[in-house]
Amino acid sequence: MFSDVAHRDLPSHVRHLFWEVLPDDVDLDRHSDYVLERVMTRGGWEAMRWLRSTYSREAIAEFLRKKGGRLTPRDRAYWSLIAGIAHSQTPGGGRPGWAG
Q1: Which site among 50, 73, 77, 80 is 20 to 30 Å from 96 CA-CA?
Q2: Do residues 10 and 23 make contact, with C-beta atoms less than 8 angstroms apart?
């Protein structure tokens, strides 16, 4: 799941994205879907770079295949490009389907 340079703790520039939990309790392997979605949807450039160095391209692609519908079309398109997978372009704005 992790790339070769995986870091097992949330760095300070990522910890603020996990305001509703204790960041020290986030397990990067067990909670990978949570971490991937949170950083993909709310992280800035530095957090996105950390995500790419922490999780393998394959792990990002697998998340997108299984749970990419949780992301906005814009976020899904960007991360699909990063993961090197095809994405289906959907019409509409930046709200994911579950947001109503």
Answers
A1: 50
A2: yes
